[in-house]
Amino acid sequence: MTTTDPHTLTGAYALHALPDDERAAFERHLAGCADCEREVAEFTATAARLASASGMAARPALREQVLHRITTVRQAPPGPAAVDQARRRVPRLGGPLRWALAACAAAAAAFGGTAVWQYERAQEAHRQTAEAERHADEVAGVLAAPDARTRSAQLAGGTGTLVVSTARGRAVFVASGLAEPPRGKVYELWFADGGRMRPAGLLKPDRASQAVLMRGPVEHASGVGITVEPAGGSPRPTTEPVGLLDIPS
């Protein structure tokens, strides 16, 4: 059980960086702490701004100017007189001050590392969100296509519906009420294509109902199968299908 002060976890929570047990404990704390709720909202907004930040491209002539200066400007090393003068101008630091400056430098380095880590996490969250939105758009495009055709069958304790758009050349598999696969296993989709089974994606094992855009084009596939495979999927079926559906015409 963690003993970390929950008030220090707002940033990590906003970036989805807490382990499951700490996240659950923090959410219980968050329900009754207005200060932490406000900080989480501010961190979340900041992460979103960082994720959408973009750099400004340098002027094309700037590179040539820099390269030209490198060849014409040479920094001479300081002579002995300059070094002695600099030493006289810099006061010797006492013990406490020296340690204070060292602590400040360490804190600045740690803060900089944290900022980079937070930026990278924000970028990853932005990428995952964009990918999820793109997937949802593609699924919706197939389901709403004017030429969409469907075929349904009972399988794995629930219902599987295949939706195919010939114009788009894509298919969506809609699962409803499927039984959870055995621990460490997943349902894998396949296209029956020219006498071979072509991998076409995985269903999320913790969701009884979901819509999956099948991987790859429909092309000349005659049907779709679903099998139970090890987590991560298999390059070819290792079990008998729990369901088979013909491609709707």
Describe what you observe in this structure:
With 249 residues, the chain is α+β, with helices and mostly antiparallel strands. The chain folds into 2 domains: 1-52 and 110-144, no CATH class; 149-246. The protein is built from 6 helices and 8 strands. The strands form 2 sheets. A 4-stranded antiparallel β-sheet has the order 1-2-3-6, with helices on one face. A 4-stranded antiparallel β-sheet has the order 5-4-7-8, with no helix packed on it. The two termini are 57 Å apart. It comes from Streptomyces andamanensis. Pfam families: RskA_C (PF10099), RskA_N (PF22618). This is Regulator of SigK. Residues 101-242 form the Anti-sigma K factor RskA C-terminal domain.
Q: What are the low-pLDDT stretches, counting only 5+ consecutive residues below 50?
A: 51-55
| Mean pLDDT rating | 76
SS summary, helix count: 6
Shape descriptor: elongated
Strand-residue fraction? 15-25%
Helix content: 40-55%
Q: Summarize the biggest pleated sheet.
A: 4 strands, antiparallel
**Secondary-structure element order, as H and E?**
HHHHHHEEEEEEEE
Radius of gyration, CA atoms, in whole angstroms: 29 Å
